[in-house]
Specification:
The chain has 298 residues and is of the alpha/beta class. The protein has a six-stranded parallel sheet, with helices on both faces. The longest helix is centred in the middle third of the chain and has 30 residues.
Length: 298
């Protein structure tokens, strides 16, 4: 694929590392940057190139992917004191695949456009396993023509779909994760109730998954990560909580009721404080089980 567009990949963490490596394997020239030397070394070992600054990898790129922790860091990378926006070629397409705040994404897109470049948001769902396998759900917000330009690259990573104008991808990703988190919490409370009553969890899940109570939590998370007590979905509790807060913040700004969602955020916040920043999000089931045992011991 010698005529493939050159891709700059900024952010080579748990998700960015396997995603960038897939692009290298697909034949794309990839130049990556991450603050962590070990992350840059992983991309080099996979056949990509790296540099000591984000600006250096962006300068000659046709397309720039950002996979960063939050809106504030995305904004700093693009428009901060040493922002890469000023170093990019005119007309460069930036793809923010981070879990950013949708209203801030809309405002940032205007800044990018004023500088002569373009921005689309394309957050993902599917976790590290989806990043490795190239099966991510990619929710794209922006112009259809810009998605068409990036489509070949994004299809190496998963299934991209245009979900609305700029910011729509980030909004939908946060909303999805708010729902996912609420599902997991109530599923875990319900499953633990059944287990305490004496029901077999596998029998419960088999019945629920052909009934109206089924969800991603009953079909995937409980059978794959919780029943066997591995808690290794690859998606952090802190990241889930961040997305939940983005969704409730969006609801607040739009004047939409979010009382139950606020309660879900409060519950997850308590679990996060106890479990710590490195916890997998499926560990909330383990935490709830521990609360149950503490309560019965009192």
């Amino acid at each position: 694929m010698s005529d493939a567009m050159t891709v700059a990949f900024v952010g080579l963490g748990n998700m960015g590392s396997p995603m960038s490596e897939r692009l290298v394997a697909a034949g794309y020239p990839v130049r990556g940057f991450d603050l962590a030397p070990a992350a840059r070394e992983r991309l080099e070992a996979a056949g990509g190139e790296t540099a000591d600054s984000a600006g250096a990898v962006v300068a000659e790129a046709d397309l720039v992917i950002l996979m960063l922790p939050n809106s504030a860091i995305v904004e700093a990378v693009l428009t901060g004191e040493s922002g890469v926006l000023a170093q990019a070629r005119p007309g460069t397409l930036f793809v923010d695949m981070s879990s950013s705040e949708p209203l801030r994404t809309r405002a940032l897109a205007e800044v990018v456009q004023a500088a002569g470049s373009r921005l689309i948001d394309a957050p993902v769902s599917g976790g590290v396993k989806g990043a490795v396998a190239g099966t991510l759900t990619i929710m794209v917000g922006g112009a259809e023509s810009d998605l068409d330009e990036a489509r070949g690259v994004l299809e190496v990573l998963g299934k991209p779909a245009l979900v609305g104008p700029i910011g729509a991808g980030h909004a939908l990703k946060a909303i999805n994760n708010l729902m996912s988190a609420a599902h997991l919490w109530v599923t875990s409370e319900a499953m633990l109730t059944g287990i305490e009553f004496g029901l077999d969890p596998t029998v419960m899940l088999d019945a629920i998954n052909t009934s109206s109570g089924r969800s991603g939590s009953t079909q995937l998370k409980w059978p794959n990560f919780i029943v066997g007590e591995t808690y290794d979905s690859g998606f952090g509790l802190s990241l889930m909580l961040k997305d939940m807060r983005i969704a409730t913040g969006l609801a607040e700004s739009l004047g939409v009721p979010h009382t139950l969602s606020d309660q879900a955020v409060a519950h997850w916040s308590t679990a996060s404080e106890d479990l710590g920043p490195a916890a997998d999000h499926t560990e909330v089931a383990r935490w709830l089980r521990a609360q149950e045992k503490e309560g019965s011991a009192e």
